[in-house]
Amino acid sequence: MDWRWVAAAGAGLAAMLGGSMVLRQPSAPAQAGLPVRPPASRTVVDAELPDRLPEASARTREDKRFDRYDKDRDGQVTRDEYLAQRRKAFAKLDRDGDGHLSFDEWAVKATTKFAAADRDRSNAMDRAEFATTAVKRKPARTMHCPPASDDAVKPTEES
Description:
Blueprint: H1 3-24, H2 44-48, H3 61-69, E1 77-78, H4 79-93, H5 103-117, E2 124-125, H6 127-131, H7 150-153
Antiparallel strand pairs: 1-2
Helix pairs in contact: 4-5
Pfam families: EF-hand_5
InterPro entries: EF-hand-dom_pair, EF_Hand_1_Ca_BS, EF_hand_dom
Protein name: EF-hand domain-containing protein
């Protein structure tokens, strides 16, 4: 067999391999290192999805907290309703039931807090009075990424 035939066969194989690689490349340039995915076709499930997300509930955190305390749903938190939550917390603290943490000593803070919030001295708190008893939360920590330095983005002159 002549070496020209071998060279021609090798060139033909290289041309076919190169042609198949050109046909497989995506039409849009891909970012380096990211896999190329074909565009997803719409399915029946996608067509049934709404265009807008539903609005969040208008109930605030404070409304939900008030409703947890207002057991009889009369729109007011009585002293007994307010202290009921404290009794549950006390029972959790006094796990062995030995009584070293007496309720009277522990409830002084809750009773004082209730008395301070009950501004009209009606022995019940309305929503505005109840809102003053909320635990003051620390603001959520947010993570801020430093901006990318120009050195990391620009290619070096050597490359």
